[in-house]
Amino acid sequence: MKQRFVAMVVLCLVSLAAQAEEGWVARESAHGVSETVDRLEQAVRDKGLSVFGRIDHAKAAAAVGLELRPTTVLLFGSPKLGSKLMQANQLIGVDLPLRVLVWEDANGQVWLGYLRPSALLQRHDIGDQQAVEEKMSGALAGLAEAAASP
Length: 150
Hints:
This protein is an alpha+beta fold.
């Protein structure tokens, strides 16, 4: 349990750092957080990608007596693509699998956000994987559309 908590804290910090960087993509969702994440997870599975985890930050906060608006991260990807990037620079493993954050803001609006694959490749100085970056970018955009659209 302690390892899971540490992993959640690390993912939260990575997500916060990603928001501050160029390359952060955020779009409004027409659904609540749970439904947006459910739709995202189904779209991921429909594309034949692997779901590696779902982290409910609000639930974790409640477990330690803290309040947090609905905030969930879905971790997913394709080992076939991710491994190619790790062959180029193993350190990108800290940013893989891909993750999408779904959260409710102070006004009650639900958002879906992620870091562009091009920003990940730039962060890890991977310049020779254009085809992988394009495939990941297209997949993320399509998954976001499927999850957030009415």
